[in-house]
Amino acid sequence: MNASDQRLAAGALSVPEETIVEACGDPPLPELGIIEQVWETDPIAPADVGTHAARAVESLPLADVPEGGEVALGVGSRGIANLPDIVAGVVDAVSDAGYEPFVFPAMGSHGGATGGGQRTMLNELGVTESAIGCEIRSSMDVVEVGRTPDRNVPVVADDTAVAADAIIPINRIKPHTDFDGPVESGLSKMLVIGMGKQRGAQIAHKWAVDWSFRRMIPEITGQLLEELPIVGGVAIVEDQHDETTLIEGVPPSGFLDREAELLETAYEKMPTLPFENLDLVIFDRQGKEISGQGLDTNVIGRRPFSINEPAPETPDIKRIYTRGLTEKTHGNAMGVGSADVIHENIIAELDAQTSLINALTASTIRGVKLPPVVETDRAGIVAALSTIGVVDTGTVRVLRAADTMHLHRLYASPALVEAARGREDLRVVEEPSPIEFDDGRFVAPPLRE
């Protein structure tokens, strides 16, 4: 379907503003000011991340790797700050130690579940052969390296990585969107699901229905550490501004214990919404580089697609309106069903095949269910606020954010601006003023981080 046909399809699904107003009335909308979260951070200077990455490698036990041996570096998670420089630093350290590094995509089924697609994704992340200084080997082929003792589940891994003399995954440690556990997103998950390619990701998600990720990932990680020449990993932790704050080499013995400690640090530094109870949150965009579920479930307090996992306790958001997809998500609208209302731009930009492949692999087909579609921002706000009961513009609690990753600056309704005045972790940047629309679309400029 070409762009013109996609726009026509979006128009066929979306409800006009006049229809929404006719059904809901034409209520006054709250004014919006701008508030800012106050965070104390200590990021690594971008010019220094390569040096920190090299030091992380130097701390790993490489003595048993044969001289001149091949070292497979697993890379593939989106949205990691300074990723090309971090990978280049790892490559330099491995090369300086006398080994031959190469990068392989460790990203499960992403990139359309093709070797070429995964190479393209790495290139779009800035991880090109010229940028990192080594070869990239991209294939979807896997080999079975064992079976779990209790359930006889196949354990598979990228065949190019298995054939190497050593394996080092490079990944960010962060809370996962689908489950809570001692380890979540990070080195262990990259080994189990990312290095397992499409087949491994599908096996893991199918078995998670009965087994659960919190038990599966540690068990299979232990088995992979026994069967494969994994000499450690390079762990990354980011701060509230999504800047690199820590790069650490984690030896095989620390993949579970040390990773669990780093996860606690990542939770402490994770950006969140500054209020627990909200009537409406407007997100300008969602995307896979923002979160695996488009909108981070830990930020929105909703986990409607997870496999046998409870939702986070907070925040409690009555309505979510999402306005569009990021360019880097390439039409993957996984998690779009987290919203209550969406703008027709999402339909116009959605790649149904990519979204469905992701949902099928993750066994979460509800993740791509479409909420009601509206043709304008004004219609989205009216539809959302008209379904939460009686609304007073002076007391209604409304936030607008760029996305679930960038939460430094937020548009806020008068009630929330007043609440911010009495808090040390918030500051008021602009006083509330009426929302302006141009042909139903927000006039206000985007939030500056």
**Overall average residue pLDDT:** 91
Radius of gyration: 23 Å
Percentage of residues assigned to helices: 25-40%
Low-confidence stretches: none
DSSP E strands, number:
18
Q: Mind describing the biggest β-sheet?
A: 8 strands, mixed
Number of discrete domains: 2
How many DSSP H or I helices?
A: 16
Instruction: Report the principal-axis shape.
Output: globular
Strand neighbour order, sheet with most strands: 13-12-11-10-14-15-1-16
Amino-to-carboxy terminus distance: 35 Å
Task: Write up what this structure looks like.
This protein has about 450 residues and is of the alpha/beta class. It folds into 2 domains: about 5-40 and about 270-440, no CATH class; about 50-240, Rossmann fold. The protein is about 35% helix and about 20% strand. The chain contains 16 helices and 18 strands. The chain has helices spanning about 5-15, 15-25, 50-60, 85-95, 115-125, 130, 160, 185-195, 195-210, 215-225, 255-270, 295-300, 345-350, 350-360, 375-385, 415-420, and strands spanning about 30-35, 70-75, 100-105, 135, 140-145, 155-160, 165-170, 235-240, 245-250, 275-285, 315-320, 340-345, 375, 400, 410, 425-435, 435-440, 440. An 8-stranded mixed sheet has the order 13-12-11-10-14-15-1-16. Strands 4-3-2-7-8-9 form a 6-stranded mixed sheet, sandwiched between helices. Helix 9 crosses helix 10 (about 215-225). The protein is globular, with a radius of gyration of 23 Å. The relative contact order is 0.16. The model has no long low-confidence stretch (mean pLDDT about 90).
